[in-house]
Amino acid sequence: MSSMSEDVHRPRPVVDPSLDPEHREEVLSAHYRSSSPDPRPARLREGAAQLFGVGFTLALTTALGGWYLSIIIATITAVAYTVALLVRGEANPVVRVSGAFLGAGTLAAVPAWVLDPAAATGLPWLVFGGLAAMVTADGLTCRTRADARADSDRADRLVGPDEVNRADHPLLLEVQYTIDRVSEHAHELGEGTEPGRTLEVLHQEEWRIAGLLARQRTLRRAHLRRWQRAESERVREALRPQREYLDAVGEAVRRRVDSVREYRRVFDRALAAHREWIQCQEARDSTPDYLRHLADAEVLDTGATEVSDLVCAADAAGRVRDEHVRELLGHPLHPDA
Q1: Closest Cα to residue 209, out of 258, 243, 266?
Q2: Interatomic CA distance for residues 217 and 223, integer angstroms
Q3: What's the rounded Cα separation, in Å, for the pair 202 and 197?
């Protein structure tokens, strides 16, 4: 890993390169949803806060305005919650249907208490009870990580970093770093290098290596459990070929990663040579400017005699001037004379 110029981090999720871009984004989105924290505790806390607000409002309204005003508030709240439940994608389908029945039943009761206000007695708390049941059920059954995985074939189309043994992360990072290098700089080499085809091959290598490493982790853990539960040396002897096979697979993966790493070295050397060639061309193309600059400087040397004559003339003029000044100072009319 000393060849890598960036810090060692967790590898990126690896997606099946045969997927089209749209499907690839769907699989990645499903993976990141599955990696997010369990939404249920937060949903329950949010629901409890909402229920507290609604219950406090109903109690205050009942005390100050009576049952009739309370049922109006309870009806509006139940219908609004039902609509929110229907449009929220992570809600459990059963809870969504139950919420729809709650909203429909609340609306169906409207004519009864509008025509007979006495029928509203106690009804707001009955609606509140149904609302509390829906909020609690929604908080407990909203889609979890397992539900998010079930929305797609992520398990068959993506290998996440947690599916690879941490000790094998550097191997996958080497491949991904090579992909990043080629993706970022292949265009500099120009035509003939086929960067698109190169990246396609590298992504296929990444997918194969990630799949092998993920399966290696699963099989190694299973082998370790069997080894630890072995009742005798005879059982361990029977398990020994499994360990040898795992070691052979690990060695094969490392050799393949070494090939990818060697390709990156060749690519970097080619890139450095290409940049050197470009810089030499720039030096060659810009040399005429420096030649012209030198030619302009040589003109100064050719005019050196003329400058010397000017200097001599100036010196002569200075001497004549000094003589005239001395003559002026010695004139009888001069104040210093």
Answers
A1: 258
A2: 10
A3: 9
